[in-house]
Design goal:
Keywords: DNA-binding. The chain has helices at residues 27-52, 63-70, 74-82, 100-107, 135-142, 146-155, 171-178; strands at residues 6-7, 14-15, 60-62, 88-90, 96-99, 132-134, 161-163, 166-170. The protein is an alpha+beta fold. It starts with 5 loop residues before the first strand and ends in a 6-residue tail after the last helix. Bound molecules: zinc ion.
Amino acid sequence: MKRLNKQCLVCGGEFLPKNVASVYCSPKCSKKAYKQKMLRLKKEEEIKVLAGKIPENKAFLSVPEAGILFGVAKRTLYRLVSQGEIPSVNLGIRLVRIDRSVMAEMFGPARSLPQPESAPKKKLYSLEKEDCYSIGEIAERFQISEGSVYNHIRKYSIPTRQIGKYVYAPKMEIDNLYNGNDFI
Ligand SMILES: [Zn+2]
């Protein structure tokens, strides 16, 4: 059978393959492909580490977090958010938050990651006043209305405590809800 030219996967040049399995035109392209593969594996490993740091129960994701978990480019997400294709909560510049469930609807399940062994988790929050924000403080700190704060607290079952005429919620839970690392 007559051998036909193939197209090199690296440089795109045509070459006459030595055998049916050849996909690179030269040792140079073959080496380059190997290097690229190693880089890709390293990057995948880094992504795994970053994704592993995002709490599994985090409902509101920053754009970088959503990108990592769902394998979508940040640029694409920012565009979709600004076009209104992805509904988002905008808490200010660089504080766009995307609902994790919306991402799952649009892009399918998040990367499956080995979750750390979950020993029966101790509740980490404290309802002592000094460990809490009042609803008013939350609204001011994160630039959202008190009504939205109450909605989120209900929706995500965040514990609250009433002291006098103010309602308090644990700082840790609130920070986890509204903060995200925008700089990873
Ligand atoms: Zn080549």
